[in-house]
Amino acid sequence: MEGTETGANTYLIRPNYQHKFKAGVAKECIRTVLRDSLINVTYDPEQSPALSKQLADKIKDKLKEVGFERYKLVVQVVLGEQRGEGVKMAARCFWDADTDSYVQDIFMNESLFCVAVAFGSYYY
Questions:
Q1: CA-CA distance, 117 to 104, in Å (whole number)?
Q2: What are the start-end ranges of the E strands in 26-90?
Q3: What's the predicted TM-score (pTM) here?
Q4: What is the pLDDT of residues 42-58, one digit of tens each?
């Protein structure tokens, strides 16, 4: 049978160790974006929706630069006014504990707080 080639199966069921979602690297990306973007910002309820979307996009772009291949990235950013009150966040996900992970970081200044969470889910 000329012209037919049998190749190796290239379908990856698990990421290589080098391409796994690394929480430490992702946390540093989030910390850098939050610190650089919010260091001198005061809380403004009119600007908060746009600012949180802008931060989420920056974080997602920075995580994509790291090169988590075949990972679906979901970024959630919550901004609030610093008033000495407590805030609780929760999330539920159905995922593969071997390949999927998340990371979160918090930024606070005298005027506002920001909680950013990034979820990395391996795309089979």
A1: 4
A2: 71-81
A3: 0.85
A4: 999 999 999 999 999 99
